[in-house]
Amino acid sequence: MADGPRQTAALLVNGRGQYLLHLRDAHRPICDPGAWSLPGGAREGDETAEEAVARELLEETGLVLDGLTRYGVVDGTIQVFLGRWDGDPARLSVTEGVMFAFFDAETTARLTMAPWAAEILALHRADGTLPPARPVSGRGTVPNVVGVHLYLERDGKVLLGLRHPDLSFAPLRHHFLAGHCELESAVACLVREAREEAGLEIGADDVELVHTVHVLDRPGTRPRLQLVFRARTWRGEPRVLEPDKCLGWEWWPLDALPEPMVGYARAAVEGIRDGRAYTELGWD
Length: 284
What we know:
The protein has 284 residues and is α+β, with helices and mostly antiparallel strands. It has five helices and 16 strands. It has helices spanning 49-61, 105-108, 115-127, 186-198, 263-274; strands spanning 7-13, 19-23, 36-37, 40-42, 69-74, 78-84, 99-103, 145-151, 153-154, 157-163, 174-175, 177-180, 207-215, 224-231, 246-253, 278-281. Strands 12-8-14-13-16 form a five-stranded mixed sheet, sandwiched between helices. It comes from Streptomyces phaeoluteigriseus. Residues 3-125, 143-274 form the Nudix hydrolase domain. This is Nudix hydrolase domain-containing protein.
């Protein structure tokens, strides 16, 4: 197992010396709720700190950055990496927390900051190190976000959940039970999400891929590959186990889907009913 701090963070600075900060959720049982912090997270398994910070940046922001260097250890537990990014935070994918934004040093002093993040910013302001500009990804390759979705059909109805109003993506819209792949296969992610979100038990051998939607939300954002799996059998009735994400589960007639509904989810249901395996959205 790799040695050193188990937590990682990325201190990203732009050409004007501003810092990319992440506003964390205020009403969840997490560290530093409602505070501005740095993107990052814990190492998983035998990951090195470099592998962990790269994965966390990809999952939280969609960024793939070359040239991240070890900058220091803060709070005795967090390995901080220094890097440069000159992009627009408004175009970043927000998969966790509320938003990303750049702030200059003077403004950060007036923000509610995670204490450890404020400490590392103070250290950086003192030495003024500005990393050189580097490309975001190599040779034009753009990583796609992979999402998995559970399609359950019973008596001509499909299971959909109403998303919580505080979510950054699709608040108060109906959607499949869904999640993003971590360091796991798509089917393993599906099995885990079904259990964690709704208390449903499904077997890996009882699911089949029935539709794929390749989505580009808008120019400059990361494409998303949305995989929709049908479970032929399952155990249990859907329950709300993550009330900060879902207000309730309901079975909806296939010919009377609810409004509003996540657009690509509606497209997937229509594709499944039409016998099509693939849909593209947003690429025109």
